[in-house]
Every structure is written in C-alpha cells, then in structure tokens.
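re: ur question from yesterday

yeah so i grabbed the chain u mentioned. its 275 aa long if i counted rite. heres the sequnce exactly as i have it in my notes:
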Amino acid sequence: MTGTTAAPVAGAQRIQAAFDRAREQDRAALIVYLTSCFPDPATSRACFEAAVEAGADILEIGVPFSDPMMDGPIIQAANQQVLDAGTRVADHLELIRSLDHLDVPKLVMTYVTIADTRGYAAFADECAAAGLSGVILPDLPVPEADAWRREADRAGLATVFLASSVSTDERLDAIGAASRGWVYAVGLLGVTGVKGVSQDVTRDLVARLRPRTSLPIAVGIGVKDRDSAAQVAAYADGVIVGSSVVEAAAGGDPAGAPERVATLVRELRAGVERG
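ran it thru and got these structure tokens back, copy pasting raw so excuse formatting
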C-alpha cells in the first residue's frame, strides 16, 4: 500500500461501521443519493425515510448549486426546481437535522462554492451540528483541499474524494491517502444519469485503487438498476445510485414519491445482495 492510513474521525468511523455491517452480510453497501428538498421539503424528508426503510445503508444528500459540474440532466432539473423555490442552504441543513432519527450515516454532496461562501470552518461546524458524517465536494481536488480537510477533520467529518479511470497512479495515491470514509470510484467519464457504468473500466479502476487505500471503495455514476448494481457489487465495497432514484421521486404525483423511491431502492438492495 502506498497511501497512508487516514487518522480516524467520528464521521469516518460511522461510515466504516456501515460498510462493516454490509460486509458481515456478505454484500456491498448501498449508498442512495437524493436531492435535498425535492420536490418539496416534506416529500423529500419522506423519500429519505423510505430509502432507508427499503434498504439504503448510507445516504448522500445533494445540496443544489447553480453550476454543477458533475450532475446530469435529471439531477440538474431537480436542483433547479429546488433553487427556483428559493430554498437556502439553511433550509437543507434543517431538513438534514430532521433526519437524525435515521440510523445510517449521512453525507452532504455539494460544491466548493457553497462551503467557501459560508467559510470552511462555519460550514464544517454546520454540517456536524446537522448530524452529518461527511461531505463530498466533487470539484475540490486533493492538492487544493488542505484547508477544507483541516476543518472537516476538526469537526469530525469524513471527506470523500473521487477517483476516475484517467487518474494517474500518483493521483490515485493522493486520493487514497486523503479520503476519509470511502473512496468514490467514478463509473464513467461525464455527468450523472446519461450513460450506464462501464464495468470493465470501473473494475480496473477499483483494482488500481485497492493497493492504495485501506478504505472501502464505492462505485457511482452510471449505476441505475438492479442488474448494474449487482455487477458493481461483485467487485466493489459499495454501490452508489443517484439519478434513477431522483427520477423515481420526480416521476408522478409527489404524494407517491416515497413509495416509488422505496420500490426502486428495494430492487437495488436485491442487486447488491445478489452481487
């Protein structure tokens, strides 16, 4: 192993425990992404609850940003609806606090501008106070992350970094050493929700990451259904699904969104168990 072992922080320990529980059940962990406050705060809260009830091990909670680099058309549309409603970061943190009864690790996924505008120290403290275990900032490269990582570590938050198939070995070393909680292996190049995961490319990326970190490796972007979840679960520690879950929440009467989300998450859970 060429990467260093990360110092433990409370959020990372909660995340590790979730991966350990899944491993004890001989399956990959299921990580479910949903846009916060979509389609409205009350329905959003019910969708997160439904996802956990249906089998999600970890929640990724998307806080919308007006210029997302990673989100594809499905998540962009959800984000824009939330932004158009005038929802503020404080509203998202309030929603996250209301999910404290859900006994799974919760991470916020947003962009550097949100954290930077509020101030790294203040944002880390707000996230910790909301009950979050970690933060994912996909546009924050490891070489520029020291200031954020100091504040995240101080607040007990894990920071998950992303690795892709075009990352050099040196960059994968840095990502493996800097990450807390897990390493996020990107299943395809591009944005979310457009193409299916490239299994051969992603399997190779996971194999390259293994000797570089002791953390679990979870694959996201391009995983959308039971079959693709099962394929990824055969070689990764975690499976991350976002766009198809958001699409389920968006696809009809908001009153039915929690059940639609639950139906899909049950299918995905069956996939990671089969894998």
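noticed a couple things. Residues 127 and 206 are 29 Å apart (CA to CA). also The first helix runs from residue 10 to 24.
anyway ttyl
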